[in-house]
Design goal:
Number of strands: 8
Helix content: 25-40%
Order of helices and strands: EEHHEHEEEEE
Number of helices: 3
Radius of gyration: 16 Å
Strand order of the largest sheet: 1-2-3-4-6-5
Length: about 170
């Protein structure tokens, strides 16, 4: 969906290694079919976003949990990762798009904003939201007239004070 010069996209990328569970043939079959559809949808969405100023992508999974990177490639995925093909497609499409991309997700539910691929795909910024243990919210601002279109701030639930951990 395009709104005020920003393309908004969702894909069904799920936690627990995107359901790529080698010990369960039905899970593997489900993974391959859904992952192929997600990748096709991602490519079609970026193609449709050609004139957009920015793109927002929402998924469920924390693709960056458990040291996703290879020891020799801090922005790569392990061969057995259920996120590898999707992440590589996201990087390639974001690079071809050449404009800001915001990836929003939950799953691990630790509020943070970071660049997951600073060298390989510097246009991608990620925001992870709070979760059930911390019932707060994140307000995301989008302003295509600003030098960088995305901003975020936590909205803290007054009845559940936040515990800041080092």
């Amino acid at each position: 969906m395009m709104h005020k010069g920003v393309m908004f996209v969702t894909t069904h990328v799920i936690g627990s290694n995107n359901n790529l569970e080698a010990r369960d043939i039905k899970a593997v079959e489900e993974f391959f079919a859904r992952n192929a559809a997600d990748i096709d949808w991602l490519k079609e969405s970026f193609a449709a976003a050609g004139d957009a100023e920015a793109l927002v992508l929402a998924i469920h999974a924390d693709m960056f949990e458990f040291d996703f990177a290879l020891p020799w490639d801090s922005e790569g995925y392990l061969r057995h990762s259920g996120f590898k093909a999707f992440a590589e497609t996201l990087m390639a499409e974001a690079n071809a798009f050449g404009k800001p991309v915001l990836l929003m997700f939950g799953d691990s539910h630790k509020f943070r904003m970071f660049r997951p691929f600073p060298s390989k795909s510097p246009h991608v910024m990620a925001i992870e939201t709070f979760g059930s243990a911390d019932m707060h919210a994140v307000e995301v601002m989008v302003d295509t007239d600003a030098s960088y279109p995305f901003g975020a701030r936590p909205l803290i639930n007054a009845v559940q004070p936040i515990e800041w951990k080092e």
